[in-house]
Specification:
The protein is of the alpha/beta class. It has 2 domains: 91 residues, no CATH class; 134 residues, Rossmann fold (3-Layer(aba) Sandwich). It is built from 10 helices and 5 strands, in the order ααααβααβαβαβαβα. The protein has a 5-stranded parallel β-sheet, with helices on both faces. The chain is globular, with a radius of gyration of 20 Å. This is YdcF family protein. One of its GO terms (biological process) is Gram-negative-bacterium-type cell wall biogenesis. InterPro entries: Cell_Envelope_Assoc, DUF218, Rossmann-like_a/b/a_fold. One of its GO terms (cellular component) is plasma membrane. Keywords: Membrane, Transmembrane, Transmembrane helix.
C-alpha cells in the first residue's frame, strides 16, 4: 500500500502542480479561442490568472507565512541534545553523480545548520534521513550525497547516522525512529525548512517520537517590504512549494500520517 500511495502521490502532483497546470490551461484556452471556441476563455483566464495573481499580489508570501511561522526554535536552546535529525530535500543526487562533487539546492541551510549544530553539541549524533524520491529506484540516494558532504566538512564519521530508504516525510519519521531507537527523556532536534516543519512535526509525533523543531531556510517574513523582494520566477516556485505543503498536510491527515490537520506547537 505504501508503494502504491507513493507512486500515486508523485503522479498526482505532476498533473496538478500549479505552475504547470496553469500553463496547460492557458495554452488550451488560447488554442480553443483560435479555433472559434468561445468557452476557451475560461481555461485561458484561469491559467493566466494564476501568473497574474502571483506577479501582482503577495500570493507566495501569504501562502508561505502561516507555514513558516507555525513552529519556532526553542528559546533558550536546550543545553544538551542527544541527536539532530536532518531531513533530506537539500541535496541533488543526480547532479552530484554527474559532476563528482556534492550539489545542494535552495534548501541548503538544512545541511549547513547540521554542521553548526554538530559543533554546538559535540556529543550529539547527527542523523541524515533521505533515500530517493524517484519512482524507479536504483540511482544514488540523498544519503549518499550527504555522506560525502559531511565528510568533506570534517564531521567525524562515528557521530553520523544515515537512513537511506525513506522516500517521503512519513517514511523519514518512521524509518529514522527505527534506526536510532531514541530513549525516553532524550532531546532530539528536527532540522528542516520552516515551511515544511508543520507536516514534519505531525509525522514524527504520529510515529511516536517527540522531537524539538529547529526550522531553517526561511523564505519570507511579516514585513510587507519583503513580500516582493524575490524575482517573479522565484515567487512562482515559492507559491507552488507552499501549495504543495498545504495539499500534503490535508493528504497526510486523511491517510493518518499526522496527528493534526495543521500541527501546532
Amino acid at each position: 500500500m505504501d508503494d502504491f500511495l507513493f507512486v500515486a502521490s508523485k503522479l498526482f502532483w505532476s498533473v496538478v502542480r500549479p505552475n504547470t497546470l496553469a500553463l496547460v490551461l492557458a495554452v488550451l484556452g488560447a488554442a480553443l479561442l483560435w479555433h472559434g471556441r468561445r468557452f476557451g476563455r475560461w481555461p485561458l483566464a484561469l491559467g493566466l490568472g494564476w501568473y497574474v495573481a502571483v506577479f501582482v499580489l503577495p500570493v507566495s508570501a501569504l501562502l508561505t507565512l502561516p507555514l513558516e511561522d507555525r513552529f519556532a526554535r526553542a528559546a533558550p536552546p536546550p543545553e544538551q541534545v542527544a541527536g539532530v535529525v536532518v531531513l533530506g530535500g537539500a541535496v541533488e543526487q543526480q547532479l552530484t553523480e554527474a559532476r563528482g562533487i556534492p550539489a545542494l539546492n535552495g534548501a541548503a541551510e538544512r545541511m549547513t545548520e547540521a554542521v553548526a549544530l554538530a559543533r554546538r553539541y559535540p556529543e550529539a549524533r547527527i542523523v541524515f534521513t533521505g533515500g530517493s524520491s524517484a519512482i524507479v529506484p536504483g540511482g544514488p540516494t540523498e544519503a549518499d550525497t550527504a555522506r560525502r558532504l559531511f565528510a568533506d566538512l570534517g564531521l567525524p564519521p562515528e557521530r553520523l547516522v544515515f537512513e537511506d530508504e525513506s522516500r517521503n516525510t512519513w517514511e523519514n519519521a518512521v524509518l529514522t525512529r527505527r534506526a536510532v531507537e531514541p530513549k525516553p527523556g532524550e532531546t532530539w532536534l528536527l532540522v528542516t525548512s520552516a515551511s515544511h516543519m508543520p507536516r514534519s512535526m505531525g509525522c514524527f509525533r504520529q510515529a511516536g517520537w517527540q522531537v524539538l523543531p529547529w526550522p531553517v531556510n526561511y523564505t519570507t517574513a511579516r514585513d510587507p517590504a519583503l513580500w516582493w523582494q524575490w524575482p517573479f520566477p522565484t515567487r512562482l516556485n515559492q507559491a507552488e512549494w507552499a501549495l504543495r505543503e498545504w495539499v500534503g498536510l490535508v493528504a497526510y491527515r486523511l491517510m493518518g500520517r499526522t496527528d493534526a490537520l495543521f500541527p501546532a506547537p
